[in-house]
Amino acid sequence: MGADHVRRLARSVAGARVVAVADPDRARGEAAAAGIEGVRVHADALAALAEHGVGAVLVASPDHAHEEALLAALARGLPVLCEKPLAADARAALRVVEAEARGGRRLIQVGFMRRYDTEYRGLKALLDSGSIGRPLMLHCRHRNVSSPPHFTSAMLISSSVSHEIDAARWLLGDEVTAVTVLRPRPSAAAPAGLQDPQLVLFETAGGALVDVEIFVNCGFGYEVTCEAVGERGSARIGDEPAMVVRTAGRALQDIAQDYVVRFADAYDREVREWVAGVREGRVAGPSAWDGYAAAAVAEAGVRALADGARVAVDLAERPALYR
Ligand SMILES: NC(=O)C1=CN([C@@H]2O[C@H](COP(=O)(O)OP(=O)(O)OC[C@H]3O[C@@H](n4cnc5c(N)ncnc54)[C@H](O)[C@@H]3O)[C@@H](O)[C@H]2O)C=CC1
Ligand SMILES: O=C1[C@@H](O)[C@H](O)[C@@H](O)[C@H](O)[C@H]1O
């Protein structure tokens, strides 16, 4: 993801210049920076932050490394676009929120890129218009071809479903208050011990229900769909992104194989809008509070997965900065 963003910042976003790249795996850092003039490659993220000319930071390290980079960027007053999840767990995410709130201004945007996807934006506008009535339910599917080797059963929720948590809060304008997780028999295609797929159910403060099928070793494609059911209609996105070819008695359609393809436009728009905002001295988009709220819901989900019970979400008080 980091290499994709470096390429995006260097090649397709106006108003940004990549001056430093950090990766403890030097070969990966060098590969990400290859062909970009004037970039210095570091093994240490904090050394990259201290590099002369750094005016903003994009964090795409593994989840557990986000907190340290975020706190260092906040200490330097640097705006940050941080890949989701904001931090590895809710407590770490809350520490980041508290540090930003102490500084008294928003510097962090979280990389929940679905808010920048044309279809998701269309669905949000439709729901806000009230034309299908009050939303009652969201039915979501989130399928990956395969999971990376380090993926755990908890990460299906904390990493993958974190997108649906944010999308549901944003689309419905409502907080998730409780989570239940059902466990179908694991797919034989999933690595041994991985609970994949899972069926995750959210209840919201306003009384809506959200169900999410998360299946990260489905083998056949990257699929993200969402159907909103309102009092007077329904709307569904994510089904038909590609051309349909009819030939020899068949209808054929490519299925994207990963998020880099499916959400390419959304990542571009996300980074473009972030850079434009930073140049004007403002940070918008999903906030550190949104990142914390998603982490708190995910934490309840991980407990629900372990206990097989419905778990209430424990949300801290929202600091004034995010009201
Ligand atoms: N918005 C989205 O759709 C997606 C977001 N992500 C998020 O992006 C982040 C990175 O994920 P991937 O690229 O899939 O992981 P990855 O494992 O492919 O790459 C992570 C890179 O970070 C490096 N790294 C490790 N510790 C570091 C540190 N302290 N500072 C700087 N670099 C460090 C590693 O050497 C590796 O090159 C994760 O937080 C993940 O959740 C990942 C995929 C899609
Ligand atoms: O954020 C992402 C990954 O980290 C996660 O592992 C995938 O399941 C998601 O589809 C992708 O968007």
UniProtKB/TrEMBL annotation:
<comment type="subunit">
    <text>Homotetramer.</text>
</comment>
<dbReference type="GO" id="GO:0019310">
    <property type="term" value="P:inositol catabolic process"/>
</dbReference>
<protein>
    <recommendedName>
        <fullName>Inositol 2-dehydrogenase</fullName>
        <ecNumber>1.1.1.18</ecNumber>
    </recommendedName>
</protein>
<dbReference type="GO" id="GO:0050112">
    <property type="term" value="F:inositol 2-dehydrogenase (NAD+) activity"/>
</dbReference>
<dbReference type="InterPro" id="IPR036291">
    <property type="entry name" value="NAD(P)-bd_dom_sf"/>
</dbReference>
<dbReference type="InterPro" id="IPR004104">
    <property type="entry name" value="Gfo/Idh/MocA-like_OxRdtase_C"/>
</dbReference>
<feature type="domain" description="Gfo/Idh/MocA-like oxidoreductase C-terminal">
    <location>
        <begin position="124"/>
        <end position="313"/>
    </location>
</feature>
<comment type="function">
    <text>Involved in the oxidation of myo-inositol (MI) to 2-keto-myo-inositol (2KMI or 2-inosose).</text>
</comment>
<keyword id="KW-0520">NAD</keyword>
<dbReference type="InterPro" id="IPR000683">
    <property type="entry name" value="Gfo/Idh/MocA-like_OxRdtase_N"/>
</dbReference>
<comment type="similarity">
    <text>Belongs to the Gfo/Idh/MocA family.</text>
</comment>
<feature type="domain" description="Gfo/Idh/MocA-like oxidoreductase N-terminal">
    <location>
        <begin position="1"/>
        <end position="111"/>
    </location>
</feature>
<dbReference type="InterPro" id="IPR050424">
    <property type="entry name" value="Gfo-Idh-MocA_inositol_DH"/>
</dbReference>
<dbReference type="GO" id="GO:0000166">
    <property type="term" value="F:nucleotide binding"/>
</dbReference>
<dbReference type="InterPro" id="IPR023794">
    <property type="entry name" value="MI/DCI_dehydrogenase"/>
</dbReference>
<dbReference type="Pfam" id="PF02894">
    <property type="entry name" value="GFO_IDH_MocA_C"/>
</dbReference>
<keyword id="KW-0560">Oxidoreductase</keyword>
<dbReference type="Pfam" id="PF01408">
    <property type="entry name" value="GFO_IDH_MocA"/>
</dbReference>
